[in-house]
Amino acid sequence: MKIKEMLKTLPKKEKRQPLTALDTIWGETLDPDHILEEYPRPQMMRSQYVILNGYWQYAITASGKYPKNFDGLILVPFSPESLLSGVGRQLQPDEYLWYERTLHITDYTADSCCLLHFEAVDQCAHIYINGHFVKKHVGGYLPFQVDLTPYLHPGSNDLCLTVRVQDFSDTSYHSRGKQKLAPSGMYYTAQSGIWQTVWMETVPRQHMTGVDFEADHDQRKVTVRIHEKDTDVSPVVHIKIWDAAILSDGQKSLFPCDGKPVIDREFGSRVFTLDIPSPKSWTPKTPYLYPAEITLGKDTVYCYFAMRCFSVEKDGTGIPRICLNHEDIFLNGVLDQGYWPDGLYTAPSDEALRYDIDMARKLGFNMIRKHAKIECRRWYYHCDTMGMIVWQDMVNGGSAYSPTLLTYLPTFFCVPGPELKKSRSKKPFSHDRPKTGRMPEGKLEYRITGRTDPRGRREFLREVLATVNLLKNSPSIMAWVPFNEGWGQFDTGRITEQIRKSDPSRLIDSASGWFDHGTGDFKSVHNYFYKLAPVKDDRVYVLSEYGGYVYHVAGHSATDRTYGYRDFHSCSELENAFRRLLLHDLKPLIRKGLCGAVYTQLTDIEEETNGLLTYDRRICKISSPIAEQIRKEYL
User: Fold this and answer.
1) Distances, alpha carbon 428 to alpha carbons 101, 422, 537, 539, in Å
2) Closest CA to 167 of 118, 94, 66, 72
């Protein structure tokens, strides 16, 4: 074990110095009158919508009473803690963040509905229209909507929209990912408030509220489910599907579609199954997507789906392998936490979102593990169109727990984490690693992992299932990851089965790192300090975190302090070590059973300078020749 490197990762007692302000090329050229104007929900688009991003009034108060005066302007959807918001102030758990603006709605007719959408507000939001409370939403990562129709009359309307936010960050049981009010090392600046797009759309009274596609790759069929607002009228559903397409460079959308559709049919039912003629399979090399147009009465939406399937199948030697469309695929993955120096959780532009995915691909990765965060829906759309496989973490929460107990001690004493034997198995542990007991379940587990509050456990399960429902139409998502390194972990088997029931089409990494209860599809290992070695299990073996090599680039880092798992002092040193790790240490393990590996990580974040890109995305630490070698081996 690399003891010196391990000791450097232990928590520092000294207070962190203020971060150096960094911006990206997209933040540097930001036009405040044109902020993230793309349609936020690519899998159910309508032709008319209004983006409400831009300057709003804001105030931060000590009480929940409406402020006497507003403090100034904030650039939505950037959180007040971010550089791009124009505020630069940390919201505290005992404070209230207020937003206000006027909504101008023209030409409203009585046969329509006006819907106000919030893509994400962190954490607890109260919505008021003309001073009247209309909705409360808890959960900082999931979208919600408000029906403005009861407040409108035919013609032009001006409504006063007020949003009151509280964010308890890491002082409560709510999901918060890696946000901390006192950040350091692997934990980052807490952000709050509106951090994704706010928008409006006007729809017919009878309208679709959702469209689901369940593709059956083997049977060459797709089942379509239409969800609609309750109504007495039951018109037919008209669906058009065009032949599969791949977005070319510079093409912004799958729509409008050219040529005659391959399917053009009507149905009286809201659930129907279609045969797909000569289907084209979605893969990282050929990310074929099928555009669809669906009309219900006067409502028309534009959607897409893909023909593909994920499975675990044994190879000729009996080793379980990850398969895409029944073909073995090795997942060369990279960890991505979605932080930006100028926008924190919010990318400064749609192009910036695409840039990160494109750079991951150019560096030789075909999979991204989205870590402890749910991204905006356009990020998943870009993965769908660019052929990037996604492993999606659920956002961890829970009350205070000991990082030493849940992270540092398991890393130090076990290789590469507690091996928890399945109750049905009598096989000895592989190699000579220490035998450790199963993470105790029930009340003792709740105390260890910060899950003693039953409200928090219920909320987490609701948000897990809501996350699956939100993202399940994205063909790029291969696996769900409910827990990471014991952070807020509880009832692992039960939650795994709930996810499986909600979405049987995907794989599940029940416990990434350690505290493995023998559930899910993977034996999932984190190994930063030991020599990489094969692990035997009757599930798929994946190295779900490794690497973490540090190179601090002066002038492109937010602080002089560094955090990571092995330090290097030049680009050439880092490149040579990175190449050796992926081609010499990792590659031979594939034939011994390794099915996927996730390198930590894509970008630097604050003190954690173990990214392949600097935090400001201005420098790639790996040169093109090295990246090309990796691509040739893994893509």
Assistant:
1) 64, 11, 11, 15
2) 94
The DSSP bridge partners found for residue 127 are 135, 163
Radius of gyration of the chain (CA): 24
Mean pLDDT score, 47-58: 97
- 474-529 pLDDT, tens per residue? 999 999 999 999 999 999 999 999 999 999 999 999 999 989 999 999 999 999 99
Q: In what order do the strands lie in the sheet with 327-328?
A: 310-314, 320-324, 327-328
How many Cα atoms are found within 13 Å in the side-chain-facing hemisphere of 361?
15
Residue type at 461 in one-letter notation: L
SS3 at position 75? strand
User: Tokens 């990206």, residue?
Assistant: 24
- CB of 119 within 8 A of CB of 40? yes
Instruction: Measure the CA–CA gap between 563 and 280, rounded to whole angstroms.
Output: 45
State the DSSP H helix or E strand holding residue 362, giving kind and residue range, or none if neither: helix 350-362
For residue 425, the surrounding DSSP H or E stretch is none
Report the distance separating Cα 165 and Cα 173, nearest Å.
17
Structure tokens at 117: 């959408």
Tell me the per-residue pLDDT of 92-115, one tens digit each, with 9 for 90 and over. 999 999 999 999 999 999 999 999
Structure tokens at 323: 């398969």
Give this prediction's pTM: 0.96
Query: Which string of DSSP letters, residue by residue, matches 88-135?
Result: --PPPTT-EEEEEEEEEEEEE-TTEEEEEEES-EESEEEEEETTEEEE
Instruction: Give the SS3 label for residue 70.
Output: coil
DSSP string, 328-340: E--EEEEEE---B
Cis omega (within 30 of 0) on the bond before 145? Answer: no
Q: Are the beta carbons of 338 and 380 closer than 8 angstroms?
A: no
For residues 459 and 468, give the distance between their C-alpha atoms in angstroms, rounded to a whole number: 14
Identify residue 585 by its one-letter amino acid code: D
The region, left, alpha or beta by phi > 0 then psi within -120 to 50, assigned to residue 217 is alpha
Report the alpha-carbon distance of residue 356 to residue 405 in Å, rounded.
33
- 237-241/263-267 β-pairing: antiparallel
Question: Look-up: residue for tokens 């900082």?
Answer: 140
